[in-house]
Automatic annotation (TrEMBL):
The lineage of its organism: Bacteria, Pseudomonadati, Pseudomonadota, Alphaproteobacteria, Hyphomicrobiales. Belongs to the autoinducer-2 exporter (AI-2E) (TC 2.A.86) family. Its main location: membrane. It comes from Mesorhizobium sanjuanii. It is a multi-pass membrane protein. GO terms for cellular component: membrane. It holds the Pfam family AI-2E_transport. It is found in: Membrane. This is AI-2E family transporter.
Length: 353
């Protein structure tokens, strides 16, 4: 007589139901976290970058909450205060600069400059035929003024996101070891592969911020400094523009300083044109080769094409946080592919013929 218990009906459906509920729960959690993607991304990046500083603070102040509060306060002074002053000044300078250009175009100053050089006069005539410069400059000035007003109206949302970023940063710093252990327990990776993954994330954030943003900021600052020394209009605005262009792998600050040098040359300021060209080509263009190895070293090496796709694609997909998330997604995916390829080779060696 068979005394074994009969199989329970639907016992095979249990794992499937559990998997389905888990997937639905993950999707819901992702949707819940989506509005806070920016704050989470910047808090994570700041936590990674400030980890050595926070470790030093923790050694000085043994209390975790106090150490995290001191670290967050120091980061606020170093990041938020200068950024707020810069943005406010930048909005004012952008609007005044556009109004100045509009006035010069309407006054015919650009046309007189082109007429003074017969060699390029056909180019100026073609530009006038194809483009209504006075109307374009008027629209640009209006747009910049409206952008400044929109920025002021949306500043409360920006303030809320900044506060949320530093609120999360406090816990990322205080509980970083517990969070790291939690991720190690959850990930289906061995300890060695998990450590490689954490190191890749650290290297990617470090290289993106220091190797790209910091170098671009230095290049823009040097370019804006020379604009100010030479008496060119709105040096802060053009410095920021040069910084933004320096971030894009296929572009650079030369998109700004080369036309500026040409305009100085056409205006008869040969000395200023040569100084700007030399400064832009040697100092601004060459500082990248000096700073990048010092700040990044060999931590992260991406070809120009995947670097360009990860940065621009990340910005298009996620907005501003995509500047961090794009390269992070590419480099982490590349590492996971390497791990799977290594496992496949090992299993292939063990498989009998």
């Amino acid at each position: 007589m068979n005394t074994d218990n009969p199989p329970v009906r639907g016992s095979h459906l249990g794992p499937l139901v559990l998997a389905a509920v888990t997937i639905v729960g993950i999707v819901v959690c992702v949707l819940l976290a989506e509005p806070f993607l920016g704050a989470i991304t910047w808090a994570l990046a700041l936590a990674i970058l400030s980890a050595p500083f926070h470790a030093w603070i923790e050694r000085k102040f043994k209390h975790p909450n106090l150490a995290a509060m001191i670290s967050v306060f120091a980061i606020v002074l170093l990041v938020v205060v200068p950024a707020a002053l810069l943005v406010g000044r930048l909005v004012e300078e952008a609007a005044s600069g556009a109004a100045s250009v509009r006035a010069r175009v309407a006054d015919g100053e650009l046309q007189r400059l082109l007429d003074a050089h017969p060699g390029i006069a056909p180019i100026g005539k073609w530009i006038n035929q194809q483009i209504d410069l006075p109307s374009m400059m008027a629209n640009l000035a209006t747009w910049l003024s409206n952008a400044g007003a929109t920025f002021v109206k949306g500043s409360m949302l920006q303030v809320a996101e900044v506060l949320l970023t530093f609120y999360m940063l406090f816990y990322f710093l205080r509980d970083r070891n517990a969070v790291a252990r939690l991720f190690r327990d959850w990930m289906p990776l061995g300890s060695a592969d998990a450590e490689r993954l954490f190191q890749r994330v650290f290297n990617t954030v470090h290289a993106t911020v220091y190797g790209t943003l910091a170098v671009a900021a230095v290049q823009g600052s040097l370019g804006g400094l020379m604009f100010w020394i030479l008496g060119l209009p709105t040096p802060l605005l053009w410095g920021v523009v040069m910084s933004l262009l320096s971030v894009v792998p296929v572009l650079g600050s030369f998109v700004v300083w080369i036309p500026a040098a040409i305009l100085l040359l056409l205006d008869g300021d040969w000395g200023k044109a040569l100084i700007l060209a030399a400064w832009g080509g040697i100092v601004v263009g060459g500082i990248d080769n000096v700073l990048r190895p010092m700040l990044v070293g060999n931590q992260l090496r991406l070809h120009t094409i995947p670097a360009f796709i990860s940065m621009i694609g990340g910005l298009a997909l996620f907005g501003a946080p995509g500047f961090i998330l794009g390269p992070l997604a590419v480099t982490v995916t590349m590492l996971l592919v390497e791990i799977w390829a290594a496992r496949d080779k090992i299993s292939g060696r063990k498989r009998p013929d």
